[in-house]
Design a protein that fits this description.
- This protein has about 70 residues and is an alpha+beta fold.
- It has one domain (about 1-65).
- It has helices spanning about 1-15, 50-65, and strands at about 20-25, 30-40.
- The mean pLDDT is about 80.
């Protein structure tokens, strides 16, 4: 949802961050997002070995670049 994405970007900007992870709840009845928490250093830890690669590919995709393994 664009309104959720907008709320997350505004929360990150309000804290003067370049990036972060934002926890948001969306209330369907009101069609309104609620920012719960902003993590300035989001964890990339996960139970799967491919998580970091998924994040990297997503970031590169947003930048219009291609992922390469080195």
């Amino acid at each position: 949802l664009d309104v959720v994405r907008y709320a997350a970007k505004q929360a990150i900007a309000a804290l003067g961050l370049d990036f972060g992870a934002v926890d948001v709840m969306y209330k369907i009845k009101d069609k309104r997002p609620y920012v719960l928490e902003v993590n300035s250093t989001p964890s990339l830890a996960d139970d799967t070995a491919d998580t970091c690669e998924v994040y990297a590919k997503r970031i590169l995709s947003m930048l219009g670049a291609k992922a390469t393994k080195e």
